[in-house]
Design goal:
The protein contains two helices and eight strands, in the order H-E-E-E-E-E-E-E-H-E. It is an alpha+beta fold and about 150 residues long. It has a single domain, classed as Lipocalin (Beta Barrel), CATH 2.40.128.270. A hairpin with a 7-residue loop joins strand 4 and strand 5. The longest helix is centred in the last third of the chain and has 14 residues. The N and C termini lie far apart (about 40 Å).
């Protein structure tokens, strides 16, 4: 197992705190300023969100690569994103995961995340490792914007 320097781990963890800000469902809005929040109330039921980018600690955005057989990072909130807590499953870009989630006053937290452990190309493994590390701590939602389909 490769040792990752603590400052890098902390930077990745901080950088990923806004990762859910890029998750969304529904059609594209007409206005780029249109946003929704995890705190907004909508009808219940399952919700599928795809992570398309997250904000790093320095403020720059990290796009999630697609293509080259790279799966998207998907969160399926089985009890609906509007539930105060529930179960979540999805793909982390390489492996599948499942666990619990709950809303916080500023975002969302994940609990007891378990995943498959397939080996994938190094860029995907690094991305997945950063994702799971970020999911170990409560995440702050900066904002979400609906995305196409």
């Amino acid at each position: 197992m490769q040792h990752i320097p603590r400052p890098l781990v902390m930077t990745l963890a901080l950088a990923a705190t806004a990762m859910i800000s890029a998750c969304a469902t529904g059609p594209l809005p007409d206005s780029p300023s249109a946003t929704t929040s995890l705190g907004d109330t909508r009808s219940g039921g399952p919700s599928r969100w795809e992570l398309v980018r997250w904000q790093r600690a320095d403020g720059s955005l990290r796009d999630i690569p697609h293509g080259d057989n790279g799966q998207p990072i998907v969160f399926d909130f089985n009890d609906g994103i509007d539930s105060q807590q529930g179960t979540v499953s999805g793909t982390s870009g390489c492996n599948r995961f499942t666990g619990g989630y709950g809303k916080t006053s500023t975002g969302i937290r994940f609990d007891h995340i378990a995943s498959t452990r397939m080996a994938c190309p190094e860029p995907r493994m690094e991305l997945e490792s950063a994702l799971f590390k970020a999911m170990d701590s409560p995440l702050t939602t900066v904002g979400t914007q609906p995305s196409a389909g």
